[in-house]
Please model this.
Amino acid sequence: MDVNLRVQRYDPAGDRKPYYEEYLLTGQPEGVTVLDALIEVRENVDETLGMRCSCRSSICGSCAMRINGQATLACKTRVSSVAQPDGSVTVEPMGNMPVLKDLVVDFEIFWNKINDIGPWLKTEGPVPEREYIVDNEKMLNLIGTVGCIMCGACVSDCTVLAADPDFLGPAALAKAYRFVGDPRDAHREERLADYVKDGGIWDCTHCYYCVEVCPKGVAPMEWILELRREAEAAGHTNHNGVRHSKVFAESVKEAGWLDEAKLAMESMGSLKEKLSLVPVGLRSLLHGKMPPTGPLHYKRPGADHVKRIFEELEAKE
Amino acid sequence: MIFEHDVLVIGAGMAGLRSAIEANRAGADVAILTKVYPVRSHTNAAQGGINAALGEGDSWESHAYDTVKGSDFLGDQDAIEILAQEAPSDIIELEHMGVIFNRDEEGRLGSRNFGGATHARTYFVADITGQAMLHVGYEQILKYKIPCYNEFFATSLILEGGEAKGCLAIELRTGEMHMVKAKAVIMCTGGVGRAFEPSTNALICTGDGMALAYQAGAPLMDMEMVQYHPTTLPSNGALLTEGARGEGAYLINSLGERFMQKYAPNMLELASRDVVSRSEQTEINEGRGINGCVLLDCRHLGEQVIRTKLSQIYDLAKDFSGIDLVKEPVPIRPGMHYIMGGIKTDVNGRTMLPGLFAAGETACISLHGGNRLGANSLLELVVFGRRAGAAAAEHAARSQHSGAGEKRLKQDDDTIRELLGREDKGEHAGPLRMELGRTMHENVGVYRTAEGLTKAIGLVAQLKERYRRISVGDKGQVFNTNLTAALELGNMLDVSEAICRGSLMREESRGAQFRLDFPDRNDEQWLKHTLAYKDGDSVRMDTLPVKITRWEPVKRTY
Ligand SMILES: Cc1cc2nc3c(=O)[nH]c(=O)nc-3n(C[C@H](O)[C@H](O)[C@H](O)COP(=O)(O)OP(=O)(O)OC[C@H]3O[C@@H](n4cnc5c(N)ncnc54)[C@H](O)[C@@H]3O)c2cc1C
Ligand code: SF4
Ligand code: SF4
Ligand code: FES
Model:
């Protein structure tokens, strides 16, 4: 088959900004992956193409890049499954990390976030002579996070990281759960106290992107939600995030839809924070964008049905 | 720049990480230098697990004997005894560090059966044992704040007064040459799969450390012992684990025959790796293959089994061959998988070059002799990584830094500048590597003859000649992988030469080496290791007797 690659190029020495270069490869095998094609280019067409790759079997995490706009592993992606109707495949470096050259991004950002969560097992007390005796189910549960290959795809496409570089991000937080959920770890409490701080678990907006792009099915967002449940259960409730989810649920339960202004107000813990919302509210009012709030927040038709769903779910819990 | 440490570990696979942890424990200032980020290392690829005689009814003697027998009696028994004796405490230590091993109902470590073993002594983390271990190793490096020179490519060793004193390395991010001085160096650079095409190995497995040590005067041992895995995908060499055959998958030829009935009527598809690989190659050579492959047929196992128990294989076949195993058999062929040979070391990782230590796939102690048993390699990384780390720290405490300075640094820098500055004479790393890989696979693969090996030696020499005229199209400083590919190719050519020479010298068939012209094992003459020394532009060969402590060689039958 023919492969038409559109590759974003950037050489820090000569280029002021990135540009696209097209490579047409003919007679490639049917199962050719995007990585195979890129290697073919690098070895036989254009030796200057820069990228990272190693295992070719989606285990080393080197080859994450954006393919047709979405971060994924080039070695896991077959050209035939992503080629556009005109046969082209667009390949770009990952986002949220500065480009060093062509498809190579600066990964230090990623490792620093991993390092920030205290990524090693912290046991206490006398070390047993044999292994720690722990429940197999609990260990198996952790395999989901241990399966992360640190490819960076989730970090690349995380919408919060794009706006706030201080967010710990999906990969580091999924790794954080790996220790919080490990019965051998003796520092669970401190870890949770640390992860609820700004830039931690409450900053995720559940945009679902990390779940969608992760090539190993780690689903980082699910672990973040798990951490939130653990943090709340451990008494970390004095947080805008906790209030936010409570008000959110109550509002929908009662009226069938969200009272956005109330949500914003009641999520804030302090008077100062509440006051900081006043200018935003006034501006929305002026532009006719203030959603109906308080007594104006009427019940939607079908609200009773929504309420029943809530009640049934609550009964199950 | 010039950096200084007591101990320098080159390579951040599990062998490198484990040795660094131990050197740090011994109080040395240790640093790691690696061409890829630690968690990208090839240790990731190990799926099956890690061996130890931990279970009730099992014994270290039994583990040791299985290993000796598996090695076709070429393994050194003193080293194998240490491996088997120290395995249990090293596995327990991994568990304490954080590895999430699978457990039994009581919450204790649970084990599985593996090829060539008489007990279920393989401990595992689902099918990601290597990855789980490597990531925990990296966590420990972060915990102890051991400095890492990440994405630094080692180009040569510093030699002074016949001792190794550190290395020169290119920082990939900037293209700058640096010198890292050390009182002891541990080489943990992994295997050399890329010298063969196809291979299950990652693109980074280019035998750099073997070549650097060899060029510095340390001998390579048993390099002819190259393991072929029976079930690899033709497109990219990806490995389909033995699990498929374990569940009952068939191997069939172009006529639809289950050909293993001919070659191994009892064990069939589950005979040892060398036997199955040889049988497949015979079928292909005799014209009963399909495009150089035979077929792995899982259809009769049913969708349920394929989708649940063989999910990884199902995905690989789908992703890389575009085949649905439920409906179709997948073409596979034997592919180069592992090298038993390597830099010769003693049981404490000491090479024959003072100050230089080695551990992991790049070393040859020799544990695996003619044939490595599954799940013994990960074990080697931790047991002998630890021992090398301790010995190197001890050596460093008694040793001084080298006086080498800018002049030595400029030497490697000039070599690189010259290479980058060369005009195009038509020779490039990509195509040359492919030729090397095909040459090795065709002549130094599953079946070997003096004729084929002599041909390979000639072809490798020709490739070396052409390599002198190689040029690099990428002239940039930042992340120049074209430059590193050229350097890697130079390393693989040296190592390949040693592989061919060892194979030609060993006039017998043992373990992975099968000589059609010498089809039998010859204990009288060949209970010996082969040693290859670099001697200017040629190779000097020597031999060394195998160490036998308690098990006299007998015929190997399964
Ligand atoms: C598909 C597959 C499955 C396997 N399954 C198993 C199994 O189930 N059980 C088992 O026991 N074994 C298994 N093995 C074998 C085992 O995985 C390897 O032998 C082992 O992981 C090698 O580890 P290592 O630490 O020696 O080197 P590697 O993990 O290969 O690491 C090499 C390191 O050296 C560095 N390096 C190399 N060259 C340079 C240079 N020039 N400059 C700087 N740094 C350099 C690299 O960056 C890397 O960090 C398997 C192998 C493969 C290919
Ligand atoms: S779900 Fe949360 S962590 Fe995941 S990408 Fe969206 S904001 Fe980021
Ligand atoms: S969570 Fe998934 S996408 Fe994110 S780094 Fe890990 S493997 Fe990659
Ligand atoms: S090359 Fe290793 S994940 Fe793609």
